[in-house]
Design a protein that fits this description.
EC 2.7.9.1, 31 strands, D-amino Acid Aminotransferase, Chain A, domain 1, single chain, binds phosphoenolpyruvate, nucleotide-binding, eight-stranded parallel barrel, binds magnesium ion, kinase activity, kinase, Glucose Oxidase, domain 1, alpha/beta
Amino acid sequence: SKWVYSFGGGATEGRAEMKNLLGGKGANLAEMANLGLPVPPGFTITTELCTYFYANGRAYPPELKTQVADAIARLENAMDAKFGDPANPLLVSVRSGARASMPGMMDTVLNLGLNDATARGLALRSGDGRFAYDSYRRFIQMYSNVVLDVEHHHFEDILDGHKRDKNYSLDTDLSAADWQAVIEDYKKAVERELGTPFPQDVQEQLWGAVGAVFGSWMNARAITYRRLHDIPASWGTAVNVQCMVFGNMGEDCATGVAFTRNPSTGENAFYGEYLVNAQGEDVVAGIRTPQHLTIAGKIANKSDLPSMEEVMPDVFNQLNEVRLKLELHYRDMQDIEFTVQQNTLFMLQTRNGKRTAPAALKIAVDLANEGVIDKNEAVKRIDPASLDQLLHPTLDPKADRKVIAKGLPASPGAASGKVVFNADEAEQMAAVGDSVILCRIETSPEDIHGMHAARGILTSRGGMTSHAAVVARGMGRACVSGAGELRIDYKTKQMSVRGVTIKDGDIITIDGSTGEVMLGEVPTIQPELSGDFATLMGWADSIRRMKIRTNAETPLDARTARKFGAEGIGLCRTEHMFFDPARILAVREMILAESEEGRRTALAKLEPFQKQDFVDLFTIMAGLPVTIRLLDPPLHEFLPNTDEDMAEVAKATGTDPLRVRHRVTQLHEANPMLGHRGCRLGISYPEIYEMQARAIFAAAAEVSKASGSTVIPEVMIPLVMTKKELDILKAVVDRAAQEVMASTGQSFEYLVGTMIELPRAALRAGDIAEAAEFFSFGTNDLTQTTFGLSRDDAGNFLPDYQRQGIFEHDPFQTLDTVGVGELIALAAERGRATRPGIKLGICGEHGGDPASITFCESVGLDYVSCSPYRVPIARLAAAQAAL
Ligand code: PEP
Ligand code: MG
């Protein structure tokens, strides 16, 4: 087999496309050589060899020795030098290079091939010898550390000692003779630590370094990095052996790193840093202050040091040409490394550069406008999830932060404010202009007004689909949920975490994009929905097939969603409309009533409110489709739980408070999520759904008449498990429609459909579709019921499941395509078989998750519906899914 691929020096065997075999660095070195750029010659030992190495007890195949020897001989020819030759030594670097970039995780050895004899030879060939001995001491330290496991501090102590003795402050103060003395001490230290002398045989050095780089694939750092970035261990790393070029031979030498465009802003300007008379690791180590590449960069960063553009104008111009050539060739912003040896430029690396979310957007739009990529490609290049960073305030990256706890990143954005522990106080303080963070063990629908008034919400319990998380995302409030280490004590109005106590009124900052909780106020940066954002979203809209709707029930959310491009409402949760202080009493009256008549009396009070809610929504949505779900949650969520609340209901209804208490106990359920909720309420108390349907139709008739645009409401029945339920409730809705038509004298169209939230409903979708004109997959409940996992409690133990690799993702965040997804695919198929063209959508939290949206496209759903702030993400993800 072929294990070794050459590059540079006129004999390049690899290409950029061979990343899997040659690793990113090796493939791109080959590509640059193919482009005619100045790449020091070298060769790559393939990732397949890494696999062989680990499969064979860290041994090499027999033919490797000859292949490496031939490759070294080629380098000797190209450089007119010899590996290990005291008079004219060839020196090489040995570096790792995996398929995916793993910066700093694996090992590198520079200046390999130096020993006592070759260092002397190099010294004779290069001026005063300082460069040669400086390189040798660097090599001894690096090789001993990386290959032989001798700790850095042994060498640092020796060098510090020499500098102290001579009264030097800088490394550059040392002469050739000084370095020779340091080297003698370094070698002694190595022999003392290892019991054997530092290896003088250059072949032994080479194979030692190659083995160390392959070995570093399995070091603890690299393993952790792979786990965090989903990189499989089976990929392996390649090893690149390359002729050394020296940036540390004198004042006409330099080394640097650069980006072809600004990686923080995306601006089309060359951006980078370099150091004169230095070797690569010096730039990274931060011992000396690097200088800017360009005059503009120098001015922008208020640097006193001259730029490369001024110091080495010719080499700079050459580098700038390389920059343009690489960008055009790779059609993306590049991150490059270079070295200048005696005024000659050498390229050591190129790769697609990492960038911030705003930079990614600007670069993609600019490249498309420059004609370098097409619009589809620009749309593909933006990570939809990263748009979050553009829609919400973010923490100022330059600011200090004191993180005290971490929870789930439940709703993006950063917010600071005074800590407050209950919703009423949050509202009162916000009313007088305070910024507040509402801190609760968990939230319930009764906290909505406080959540709305707060800048951010922090809970110590609950997962990504907990009440706090769902509501905060809907409102666009920052939220950190389930910060389990926080102990919140409502009585003393304080919370504590690892010895830190935070009182009512203290200021904290939360970052809903990372889940971090910080002490004090950390400055934030406001989002700017620039022209680039609008441009890219426009391109995405022209590509996608699926419609994007929003989950919204308040006028504010509906307006926000339209501003973000929503094309209708996919889920209006009517129960959220019942918590308004002006209504809750009537709601409680209705629930606690012991007869139909009592319920109807209370419902009559609610009906005008409901109708007005729908008038508002229909008006804002101006003819776009609006799906309204009839009452869904378990009734206990509305029950009065304090004595005062019970007394209030008793008074309003003229009943004995004890009777109210009795009724509350009677309505208590052991397992409310599987209890009397959803359409089961409609089955028991059809008058509730009747009132809601009447309010919907009356509002639709009114808005259609007033605005002239036809409103076609979609009435949705939740938690259906049988066709019979739907038949019965559809008849209730149809009767209400007839009633409104008769009383208004207007006829109108409407649809009646159902949510698919139970496995049985998915399985029986064929007959349910006989009654349903549309399906909306309620994947929050469908995930809960398919897994048998409580959406309210799973947050407490799901991290264990993710740690142990049982779940790759939280199934409440990213759709379980093989389980829950199979039910969706099957229901879609059976529904369509009964009713071709049946309208299909999704309205669970997954409707705003890019990976889940890809799945929705694959089963051909008509739309996804998500919270307002996720609408842009969904627009982009739907476009990518369609490409
Ligand atoms: C669902 O279950 O996915 C859904 C959208 O309804 P809710 O979250 O209100 O139960
Ligand atoms: Mg549901």
